[in-house]
Write a structure and sequence with these properties.
Blueprint lengths: L3 H6 L1 H11 L5 H37 L3 H37 L19 E6 L12 H8 L2 E2 H7 L6 E2 L2 H19 L3 E3 L4 E2 L1 H6 L19 E2 L3 H7 L4 E4 L5 E10 L18 E11 L4 H19 L3 E5 L11 E9 L4 E10 L3 H6 L1 E4 L8 E2 L1 E9 H11 L7 E2 L5 H4 L3 E2 L2
Helix pairs in contact: 3-4, 5-12, 7-12
């Protein structure tokens, strides 16, 4: 959520940022509402001052025995009170409208974010590993997985609907092994592991920016109005909602595995085959809480931590910086990590690591105090990233590690978890 005072004092900056993002957020509507809010506040202050004057005068008249004149002034006080109450109701509505409008405003891109209208404006930062040259025609994971009996898309449709996947045998073990590898690796690198609820309330989803803008992409329960989480970021970030942290605690590094649920309402026709874009998927998430002066360094180290998982598995990847027209709603800066997928003859996103600056912290009221540096409390910076998307990682393993005989060589780092070296029919 943007700071109303910042928007008011930096109109040209906000206009330019929204233009760079390609977002039609109305700065003018905000200014009109904000001006009305300030007008009501000023008028209320004038009326309150008048009421105080009248009250003082009434007291003096009563002391002087002028009850009739005091009674007339009491009538005026009642009128002023009614006007103040009416303005209070108007002010409450205007402030709600201002808050609602600010809730729909995306974050401002960091100055280091490249400008661009869409994904074509993204900038590659680096690559690791060389895509494998096969001596045979490699199979896509949606063909090889079912042939080996480890993936079953048809029965998943029977059990639920399209864009779900059923895993069996060594496929299920591979999913579980990847999850455990990621959690073991991240906790060894200093992240605290959490086990989280999979349903969140509206305040929780609002805190991270999923509500109100992305409600159509969420699965919602009919009874209590809870939402299936689209990512563990939602829960990890809101652990400290409405709290004030001590500077000595920062930075906080959190990780968690959860299933994730997404309606994907705006993604019709995209990646309909296989495990790339599904309604339910497993993910190990990374979240950080940092002081403003260190948050950009924390973003760089988060990208290192996430991409290291692919290096452990020996999977080629690249890192790109998202441009202004492609970064997410809550992000000030985002790096995407993309793994090589032979079925696409290209790289596919497997992690997005973002610094949200104070955007989420302002929505969720997450602050920190540092008496040695400033009075009161300031908003922390929040960061999040996939570390990694497990299903996409499994798909990448199946495709990159397949053999000419239709088997899959298990990456060495996974063999202690899998209990085997090869996945065969």
């Amino acid at each position: 959520m943007l700071d109303a005072r910042f928007v008011r004092d930096n109109v040209d900056v906000v206009r330019a940022a929204m233009s760079d993002r390609g977002v039609a957020w109305s700065v003018d509507s905000f200014l009109e509402m904000d001006e009305e809010r300030r007008r009501l506040i000023a008028r209320t202050e004038v009326r309150q001052a008048r009421r105080n004057e009248l009250s003082k005068a009434i007291g003096e008249l009563m002391k002087a025995g002028k009850a009739a004149e005091a009674a007339a002034m009491k009538d005026e006080v009642r009128l002023v009170n009614d006007e103040i109450a009416a303005d209070a109701a108007l002010l409450e509505q205007v402030e709600a409208d201002v808050s609602d409008l600010l809730m729909t405003a995306p974050n401002l891109p960091h100055a280091s974010v490249p400008k661009g209208t869409d994904e074509t404006g993204n900038v590659e930062v680096r690559r690791w590993g060389t895509p494998r040259t096969f001596g045979f025609a490699p199979q896509a994971h949606w063909d090889l997985g079912p042939a080996l009996g480890i993936l079953d898309f048809e029965r998943a449709v029977k059990l639920a609907k399209s864009r779900f996947v059923l895993m069996g045998g060594l496929g299920a073990r591979l999913e579980r092994s990847v999850i455990n590898l990621f959690l073991d690796s991240h906790t060894a690198r200093g992240y605290k592991e959490w086990w989280l609820p999979l349903l969140g309330n509206a305040a929780t989803l609002t805190g991270t920016g999923n509500l109100p803008k992305f409600e159509d992409d969420l699965f919602k329960t009919q009874g209590e109005g809870l939402y299936l989480i689209p990512t563990a970021e939602v829960m990890l970030t809101n652990i400290h909602r409405d709290e004030v942290l001590d500077a000595e605690e920062l930075p906080l590094h959190y990780t968690a595995y959860t299933p994730c649920f997404r309606e994907e309402a705006g993604s019709a026709g995209r990646d309909t085959r296989g495990m790339i874009r599904v309604h339910q998927f497993d993910k190990v998430e990374l979240v950080k809480f940092a002081a403003p002066e260190t948050s950009m360094d924390e973003l760089e180290s988060m990208v290192t931590d996430a991409s290291y998982m692919l290096e452990l598995l020996g999977l080629p990847y690249r890192v790109i910086t998202l441009c202004t027209g492609d970064i997410g709603f809550s992000a000030a800066k985002t790096y995407d990590i993309e793994v090589w997928m032979p079925s696409y003859d290209g790289y596919k996103e497997i992690s997005s690591c973002s610094n949200c600056w104070d955007f989420q912290a302002r929505r969720a009221s997450i602050k920190y105090r540092d008496p040695a540096s400033f009075k009161g409390s300031h908003f922390v910076h929040t960061l999040n990233g996939s570390g990694l998307a497990v299903g996409r990682c499994v798909a990448a393993i199946i495709e990159n590690c397949q053999n000419a005989d239709g088997t899959i060589t298990v990456p060495e780092v996974l063999r202690p978890y899998m209990g085997c070296d090869v996945i065969g029919a």
